[in-house]
Amino acid sequence: MSETIDTLLQEDRIFPPSEAFKANANLNDPAIYGQADADWQGWWEGWAEKLDWFEKWHTVVEWNQPYSKWFLGGKINACYNCVDRHVKNGLGNRIAWIGEGEPGDVREFTYSMVLEHVQRLANAIKSLGVGKGDRVCIYMGQGPELCLAMLACARIGAAHSVVFGGFSAQSIQERVNDAEAKLVITADGSWRRGNIIPLKQIVDSAIEMGCPSVTNVLVYERVGAPFAETMGIPAPDYNRGTWVEGRDVWWHDVVPQQSDDCPCEPMDSEDLLYILYTSGSTGKPKGIMHTTGGYLVGTSATSKCVFDYKDSDIYWCTADCGWVTGHSYVVYGPMANCVTQVLYEGSPDTPEKDRFWRTVEKHKVTILYTAPTAIRTFMKWGEEYPAACDLSSLRLLGSVGEPINPEAWMWYHRVIGGERCPIVDTWWQTETGAIMITSLPGIVPAKPGSATKVFPGVWATIYDEDGNDLVKTQGVPVGGFLVLKRPWPSMLRGIWGDQDRYVKTYWSKFSDAYFAGDGAKLDADGYFWLLGRVDDIMLVSGHNISTMEVESALVDHPKVAEAAVIGKAHDVKGQAVAAFVILKGSAEPSDELAQELKKHVATKIGALARPDDLIFSAELPKTRSGKIMRRLLRDVAEGRVLGDVTTLADPAIVQSLKCQYEDKEG
Ligand code: 6R9
Question: Which of 93, 366, 378, 654 has most Cβ atoms within 10 angstroms of its Cβ?
C-alpha cells in the first residue's frame, strides 16, 4: 500500500527580501542553486578551500552508503580555523564573545584573548593526561568558558561530549560511561532564573553512581564568592558538592599558570571532533559522531550563506552549547567566520520578561537566531515587552528546532523584525550537523511557516511508504517522508559504539536514502513545509494528518498562544484528534471557547481535522530544548501509564494534565 500525507493547510502570503537587503547579501544570484546541484562536490570543495588546511585533501568524497568520508587525506584543526587564523590575519582585536551572565555581568573576549585562554586551557587539559583520541565530557552553563572548553579539546584532538547543563546526574553518568570520558569539565554552578544550578554537586552524584573512566574533574569557579565580590552582592549559598582531593582540580589553580603556547594537533579530516547525545524517541541516547574536516566545511559554509555575516554584525544565537545548534551555530560555524557574538547564560524572563529585547538593545544585535517555542512564549507574554525596547539594530532573524507556525512567523516578522528583517527558517538535525533546508535570505522569498528550499548542494525529496520518489512519480504539490538523497560534508559518521543502530535508524526504512524521521510537503513552487516527526502524524479515517498543521490552525485563533495536537485511538476513525491548548494572557477557558476553537480548525483545514477532545492547559510537556513531547500526551489521552519522563524540563506538567484529562473523561 502506498501512503501519502494529506496536506491541508494553505498559506499564500509571501515575503521577498527588500532590494537593499538583496543588493548587499553574500549570495544574491539564484543561479547558485543550479550550479551547486550540477557539481555538488565542486561546490563543497569551494567552501573547503576557504578554510586553512595543514595538508590538502586528495579526494573530495568517498561514498559507500551509508558511510561517507570527506576531504580524504586532508589535515586540519577546527580550533585553528576558528581562532588562530583570524589572529594571524590581523583580526585579533575583533570581539569574539560578549558574554553576558544572568546577573548582568558582561565580559568581552577578543579573538586574541580567546587564543591565549584556549592555549592555556588546552595545556592544562593535557597536563591532566588527556590527549588526542580521548573523550572529555563538558557540563557547564552557557558562556565563554564552555566555548573555550570545546575549542581546547578540538585543539589537542580530544573529542568533546557536551552534556546540557540542565540534565540530571543520571544523564551525565550514562553519557560519560558510554563515551568512556577521562575528564569532566564543569563549573561550581550556573545561574538560571535567579537560582544557582549546582553543577559540580550534580557531577559528584553522577560519579558516585559509577563513572570508572573518569580520572579528573576540572572545575571553573563561576558563582562562588569571588564572583559575588565583583558584583557587590552577598556570597551566594549553594551546594558546592564534595571536593575529592586528587580527582577534583580548580580551573584557577591549573589554567592561568600554563604556557600560552599550545600548538594545534593536525587532525585527519575524518578524525572525530565530537560526540553529541540525542535522546531519540525511546531507549538509550544515541552518541552522534561528527568528524573534523567535513563538519567544519558544512557549518562554516551554511553560517556564511544563511546568516549573511558581515564584519559589522553582532550575532546572537540563543541556543545553549548543550544542543547541536550551539555546536554548529555558536562555536564552529560562526567562529570559523570570525563573527562577533553574544553569549547569554540565563533565562529569558530574568529579571523581567524583556531580557532578550534588553539584550538586543544593549549589544545592538543585528542577527538573532532562536526557536519557535521561545517565539510562542514571547507572544503569550505580550507585545509590550519588545515594544519598549529599541530593536532597530536587527536586520535578519532565524528560527530552528521545530516547524514555526505561520502566526508565530508573522508575529516574529512584525513585532521583532519591524517588518524589515528577512526570516530564515532552518531545518536540520543533530545528525545532519548543518542546516539542510532554509532560505538564502537575499535570494528566496519567504512564506510564513515554510523552511523553503534546500541549501545549495543538498538533495532532498519526498518518498511514500514504499520508497517511491513522489516528486518524480507525481510531481508537486506532494506530501510524505522527507529523505536526503546524496551525502553532505557535515553528515553524522555514525553512532558511537553502535554502528548497527546507525544503519537501522537512518538507512533501513528506505534502501537508497537517508530517512530523517520527519514528514514534509513540497508545494507547487517547490517550497518545503515540515510537518513534524512521522511518529507524530495522525491517521484519521484513513487520512494522514499532520499534528503541526492542526496546531498551526489553533495558534491562528486570536485567543490561542500555543497548542499541541495528537492522535488518540478511536474505534471508528482509527485515530481522533485531541488538542491541548494554552490560551493567551487575557482569555478564559470555557466550553463555548472549546467549541469555537474546534470549529475554527474545521474552517481553516476541514472537518476531518476537527478535534474530538480539546483540553485547556497552562503548560505543555516539553524537552529541555523546547520540543513538545507528543508521545506523553498520547499516553495521557489514551489513559496509559506515562512513559519515560526523564528528558522533560518539568515532569509535573504532564502529571497535572493526566489528572485534568481523567476528570474530564469522568
Ligand atoms: C537543529 C535541531 C531535529 C528535529 C528535526 C525536526 C525538528 C528542527 C526545524 C524542525 C521544522 C525546522 N526541526 N528544525 N522542524 N522546521 N526549522 O533542532 O536538531 O535537536 O536534533 O532536532 O527537530 O523534527 O528532525 P535536533
Answer: 378
